[in-house]
Write a structure and sequence with these properties.
Strand content: under 5%
Oligomer: single chain
Number of helices: 16
Order of helices and strands: HHHEHHHHHEHHHHHEHHHE
Radius of gyration: 29 Å
Mean pLDDT: 81
Structural class: mainly alpha
């Protein structure tokens, strides 16, 4: 029993260490969807979602770890499948000290591995049923179906030898696991009932989040900025393919900037693709916004946050490093860039105060969330 517990704890440690990387992968799509839908992010929904991802990460690692060597799996002769339903009951009766007519054996039998393994299979998916009912508001039937599919995914992962990385499955495909895992999801659904009376109601959370989305936060501006940079970078690929024959890097760079930050926004009432997706619009700080203000804002933004950094990095890369003067110039340039853009990033994230290009153009972001 102690060996089993230590094995589970080791797997959970690995899952927790891996979780930040997994969370990073899912964080950006979640942020974008929330801002697109509500214009803001609920901290409670973040907690629920991230705990859900952590749970799924742990559950998955419990299924696949520890990983054996390829050679070890190649020489396995153990069965790959078990299709007899409720075999775990017979194993409990025959392989434990349990005697039906001897109550003194009951407690001892409940502390043995043939009892705990089925219990762990139930507990593995119990949280899934809770999350599915509370956060996603799915019915009992959908919860049962989704839990079964999750369990089937786990079992097929084992049967396929971790998606055919191994020459054969190194763990047993067991129909009892499907039964026990599905039962765990059903139990989780039932246990979620009292939690629904205690935890915040999702409909109210969404309404509050939408109300907050009417104000443009610093983090929302930062997200729009990051999304635009990502989309702009993707746009450079087809532009370079189409104009690569010109063999003029500067011209292609300028053409891409004009296309993304000036021509495309002209079709979206002055908003870039990132701003449009996050439901942001440019408005004047004091009067009706005009085309000149929007254009001036775009010019300042492109010069300060794209052109200057790009040119500075290009300048540093062509310096003949190895000489004291040029290395000093490079270090000073990098320090200035770091201070300026670091300070700007902090303002973007943590305040709603106008940034330099907003002050000069007398513009600001407004939310289009109704």
């Amino acid at each position: 029993m102690k060996i089993i517990m230590n094995g589970y704890l080791d797997v959970l440690k690995i899952a927790i260490l891996t979780f930040p990387f997994v969370a990073f992968l899912i964080s950006l799509p979640f942020i974008l969807i929330q801002y697109h839908k509500y214009g803001s992010i609920s901290s409670w929904k973040v907690v629920v979602l991230y705990s859900f991802v952590l749970y799924l990460t742990c559950a998955y690692f419990l299924v696949i770890l520890p990983l054996p060597s390829l050679d070890e799996v190649a020489h396995l002769t153990t069965p790959r499948t078990q299709f007899i339903p409720f075999q775990f009951i017979g194993e409990f009766i025959t392989h434990t000290s349990f005697k039906l007519f001897d109550p003194q054996t009951y407690l001892t039998a409940l502390s043995e591995s043939y009892f705990f393994v089925p219990i762990y299979n139930i507990l593995l998916t119990l949280p899934f049923g809770v999350y599915i009912r509370y956060y996603f508001h799915y019915s009992f039937k959908k919860t049962v179906l989704l839990t079964f599919l999750l369990s089937l995914f786990f079992e097929l992962t084992q049967l396929s030898g971790l998606y055919f990385i191994y020459p054969r499955g190194y763990r047993l495909f067991d129909v009892d696991d499907l039964i026990l895992n599905t039962s765990g999801g059903m139990l989780g659904y039932l246990l979620a009932a009292p939690l629904l009376k205690i935890l915040p109601d999702r409909a109210k959370i969404d309404a509050d989040t939408r109300e907050k989305g009417k104000v443009v936060s610093g983090f929302r501006r930062t997200t729009a900025f990051g999304l635009d940079l990502a989309l702009y970078s993707l746009l450079t690929i087809p532009v370079n393919i189409c104009l690569g024959w010109l063999d003029n890097t500067i011209f292609i760079f300028v053409a891409t900037l004009i296309l993304y930050f000036f021509i495309i926004p002209a079709t979206f009432n002055g908003a870039t693709l990132g701003e449009k997706f996050l439901k942001l619009k440019i408005s004047s700080q004091s009067e009706a916004t005009n085309l000149w203000q929007i254009s001036w804002r775009r010019i300042l933004f492109v010069i300060l946050y794209i052109a200057i950094p790009r040119l500075a990095i290009f300048f540093i890369t062509i310096l003949p490093l190895g000489e004291t003067n040029t290395e000093t110039i490079a270090l000073i340039s990098l320090a200035v860039l770091f201070i300026f853009y670091g300070f700007t990033a902090l303002k973007f994230l943590f305040t709603n105060k106008p940034i330099l290009y907003e002050k000069l153009s007398h513009t600001k972001f407004s939310s289009t969330i109704n």
